[in-house]
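User: Study the shape:
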Amino acid sequence: MKTLVIGSGGREHALALALSRDPGVTEVHAAPGNPGIGTVATLHAVDPMDGAA
């Protein structure tokens, strides 16, 4: 399963870390993320407040 975590805070980091350890998850992506999340997920530079993004 591919996943997308939206946000850049500590909760999102914990979620991305847990997802990265799940054997059923093949890809973890985060938007916009932060450097810590970037260690376990692919980051995407997206403004979470921009509905069109």
Observations:
- The mean pLDDT is 94.
- The chain has one helix and three strands.
- The radius of gyration is 10 Å.
- The first helix runs from residue 10 to 21.
